[in-house]
Amino acid sequence: MAKSELQSIEFAEFVAVPLPAQQRSREALDRFLLAGETLLANNAFEEASVTDIAQSAESSVGTFYRVLGDKDTLSLLLLQRFFQAKVASIDAITQANQWQTRTLDAFISALIESLVSTYAGRRGVLRALILRASRDADFRDRVHKLNEYIAQRVVAVIQSHQQEVHHPKPRKAMQAAVHILLGALNQHTVTGNLGHLSAKELIEELTRMTLSYLDVHQ
Q1: What Gene3D superfamilies has UniProt attached to this entry (predicted)?
Q2: In degrees to the nearest 10, what's the CA dihedral of 53, 57, 58, 62?
Q3: 149-175: per-residue pLDDT in tens?
Q4: Are 217 and 138 in contact (CB under 8 A)?
Q5: pTM for this predicted structure
Q6: In the CATH hierarchy, which fold is given to the domain comprising 76-214?
Q7: Burial of 24 from C-beta contacts in 10 A (0-12 / 13-18 / 19+)
Q8: Least packed by Cβ within 10 Å: which of 12, 48, 55, 178?
């Protein structure tokens, strides 16, 4: 396997938490994850104590430590779910057989719609991701690998329609287009700087820009 190829998604696996044997503990784990998601969405996860999380999850501190061990494990589980959701979304949208008889502009539109849907409501998760990446080199490397995995999957589909791409440097443009899209969505999700656009308008404008940049036409 070439060094640049990323066939494994090990970069999206941060922590393994055994599924509790008891139904009550499994339900508590689900509530802890939901409470964590809510705290992240409200930008309050860092300040929240284990007691706060347990109360929000309508559980006990003892159950929290028994099921999760510590707060950092919960944080990693939440980030892991985001990574794996992105991988699953990209894997689904880049299945080559569904695009063999369709145009590239249809793929670009569907791709951006999928990405916008994955990012929706994830402002807190993105903030947590950026914070951890700023202080953890290993995690930062995982973020880079995730972005590169996405780029490789998307570029493979675009290349299968390369006769529709008229950019003077198509391969470089394909790679750049994916990273530009991810960067724009990261920035928008954290800052809301494109908040004047509805979700539909955001998809339309990002699609228009991408198609124009790649100079896509029959």
Answers
A1: Homeodomain-like, Tetracycline Repressor, domain 2
A2: -60
A3: 999 999 999 999 999 999 999 999 999
A4: no
A5: 0.87
A6: Tetracycline Repressor; domain 2 (1.10.357)
A7: exposed
A8: 55
